[in-house]
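Why do we care about 3D structure at all? Because function follows from shape, and shape follows, mostly, from sequence. That is the central idea of this module. The next example makes it concrete: a single protein chain, its amino acid sequence, and then its structure expressed as tokens.
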Amino acid sequence: MYRGERAAGGSKGEVGSVDRKRINEALDKQLERSSPSTSRATNGNDKPAHSLLMGKHPPDHHRDSRSGSLSKANASNVADESETETEESDVSGSDGDDTSWISWFCNLRGNEFFCEVDDDYIQDDFNLCGLSSQVPYYDYALDLILDIESSHGDMFTEEQNELVESAAEMLYGLIHARFILTSKGMAAMLDKYKNYDFGRCPRVYCCGQPCLPVGQSDFPRSSTIKVYCPRCEDIYYPRSKYQGNIDGAYFGTTFPHLFLMTYSHLKPQMATQSYVPRVFGFKLHNP
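And the structure:
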């Protein structure tokens, strides 16, 4: 159900920071006024439209309106028409895509730090212990992540659909923080580390040392993600603006240090050289 609608909301692989902030604020309000776990009996449909997360229309409507605008476009405006046709092609290509929700989510722009969590890991209730009390619409969010179709009718409002979508993102992030501490999860993150997917240390004397993602808190909505440099042992903001809104709890405080303990051969030598401020060639001394 959501796969076709996903095309309009995420064909570009990008979640707007404004939409994400608005939805997160709505989710915060829902967390404050709702019980720890939202029951299936209370709510109707557990399959939200991905397009609602973006505040956009489903793909068929999106294509029809775009096609209409193309037919009315001025022939002299070649650049705008070409760009519109490219976007239409992207949407059409996504329509027939049978990608899972997890793959779709991990391929969104800004989510490059995430690895794909195995379905088997998510389906093991032991691995999800305690999460139902942290995530509203837990059952619906879990079904969405696992691509389980709902037998319920379309009873959710647009706001509830957005909350379920945001809850699925939150639930996946918290599951992800646990998964990357397992041997299989670390192996997946190792591939990303070797490909420099987490970026390099901006410090000059670290000589482009690859970084690792880290959170400053294990509790959701406490802080955004940072990158940890194992050479200077300091943390920095990610370079990409699209990664600035990722919750640090989706990676946790333990991962980079356990990762370097597991793959000890990857731990670099500590940086010994540091910048020395000088004035006319003379070192500055603190009073």
